[in-house]
Amino acid sequence: MKFVLEVDMTGDALADDAVGELGRILRYWAGNLRHYALAPGDEETIHDSAYGEVGRWHVTSATG
């Protein structure tokens, strides 16, 4: 199984404070993952602090 987190860092919130914004995204999803089974096919959209879509995470059955 593989967990993939993809964040587009060209958005305004990430361009202004990439370290702070990416840290916020990672903290949020680290705490929120307990609400998911984390089985292949699970996925969710990722938003920045201005609620703009900046990426997604998903779980696949792929390895390596």
Plain-language structure description:
The chain has 64 residues and is α+β, with helices and mostly antiparallel strands. It has one domain. Helix content is 31%, strand content 30%. It contains two helices and three strands. It has helices at 12-16, 18-32, and strands at residues 2-7, 43-47, 53-60. Strand 2 and strand 3 (53-60) form a beta hairpin. The protein is elongated, with a radius of gyration of 12 Å.
Structural features:
elongated; alpha+beta; 64 residues; 30% strand; 31% helix
Largest sheet: 3 strands, antiparallel
% residues in beta strands: 25-35%
| Shape designation | elongated
How many beta-strand segments? Answer: 3
Q: Which stretches of 5+ consecutive residues score pLDDT under 50?
A: none
Radius of gyration: 12 Å
**What percentage of residues falls in helices of 4 or more residues?**
25-40%
With strands numbered from the N-terminus, the spatial order across the biggest sheet is 1-3-2
Question: What's the end-to-end separation, in Å?
Answer: 9 Å
Structural class: alpha+beta
Look at the structure and give the mean pLDDT. 91
Give the H and E element order: EHHEE
- Structurally, how many domains make up the residues? 1
**Number of helical segments?**
2
